[in-house]
TrEMBL record:
UniProt KW Manganese keyword: no
Family membership noted in the UniProt record: Belongs to the TrhO family.
One Pfam entry name: Rhodanese
Species of provenance: Bradyrhizobium zhanjiangense
Protein name: tRNA uridine(34) hydroxylase
Domain Rhodanese span(s) in chain numbering: 131-225
Keyword annotations of the record: Oxidoreductase, tRNA processing
Reactions that this protein is recorded to catalyse: uridine(34) in tRNA + AH2 + O2 = 5-hydroxyuridine(34) in tRNA + A + H2O
Record function comment: Catalyzes oxygen-dependent 5-hydroxyuridine (ho5U) modification at position 34 in tRNAs.
EC number: 1.14.-.-
Top-rank lineage group of the source organism: Bacteria
Annotated InterPro entries: Rhodanese-like_dom, Rhodanese-like_dom_sf, TrhO, TRHO_N
Length: 265
């Protein structure tokens, strides 16, 4: 019988939540992760938490329980967006817990997802929304991610980093013309910040894919999918396909993206 704990489990998570004590949380969280032998990256900011970590299924379970129900965050992460997948081998080299000004960098103080965000759309309802002729479908990810895969008919903003999204929106989007916008990203976090930005600029209807592309690939059968290509992930697995199947560089026929692109999610 195989040992379940020999499997490497990956947890991708985020939540926008008021964490004024985020600096004091860094060391307890790092120590807790280290005791569980987790590796990966966690970002802490006053606006919330964002990260991806990997370890044994038991360790990942203990980590997820602590975030949502433990004393460390005191119930403030009660709406954690959390997705699990597996990896053939540990996809991270070490553990990093870092302090940031934003858990995903946009640089717009008016974009506050703790106050307002767009309308969440579950994966099961996404196809109907983006098929509507009056919906502008917008990919909020970086250009190299879009090149690997995207939804049929999606607009590529052509950005190198998420911080450039507000410039794209200012130049190309008009609240009077674009009445309904549906956005997506890898796990959902960039869309929350982008939707808050657009709402603050007066856009009327802004929707985003709850759980992001990863949730869609996990839940929507390939035969019904409007996704084309693969979904880039910021770890050594490189990309995931339908059913969150792990893909590598050789299978994709690609070279590794420039490390300078950084991790947006």
């Amino acid at each position: 019988m195989s040992d379940n704990n020999s499997v490497t489990k990956v947890a991708a998570f985020y939540q926008f939540a008021a964490l004024p004590d985020y600096r004091e949380l860094r060391e307890p969280l790092r120590a807790f992760c280290a005791r569980l032998a987790l590796k990966g990256s966690v970002l802490l900011a006053q606006e919330g938490i964002n990260g991806t970590v990997a370890g044994t299924p038991e360790a990942i379970g203990a980590f997820a329980h602590e975030l949502a129900h433990g004393d460390m965050f005191g119930g403030r992460l009660d709406n954690l967006e959390l997705k699990f997948s597996t990896a053939a081998a540990m996809p991270f080299g070490r553990l990093k817990v870092r302090l940031k000004k934003e858990i995903v960098t946009l640089g717009d103080a008016a974009a506050d997802p703790t106050k307002q965000v767009g309308t969440y759309v579950d994966a099961a309802e996404w196809n109907a929304l983006i098929a509507a002729p009056d919906t502008l479908l917008l990919d909020t990810r970086n250009a190299f991610e879009v090149a690997m895969g995207t939804f049929e008919g999606a607009v590529d903003p052509g950005i190198k980093s998420f911080g450039q999204f507000k410039d794209f929106a200012a130049a190309q989007l008009d609240p009077a013309k674009h009445r309904r916008i549906a956005m997506f990203c890898t796990g959902g976090i960039r869309c929350e910040k982008a939707s808050a930005h657009l709402l603050a600029r007066g856009f009327a209807e802004v929707y985003h894919l709850k759980g992001g592309i990863l949730k869609y690939l996990e839940q929507v059968p390939e035969t019904q999918s409007r996704w084309r290509g693969e979904c880039f992930v910021f770890d050594e697995r490189v990309a995931l396909g339908h059913g969150l199947r792990e893909l590598g560089l050789r299978e994709l026929g690609l070279r590794e993206p420039d490390k300078g692109h950084g991790r947006d999610e």
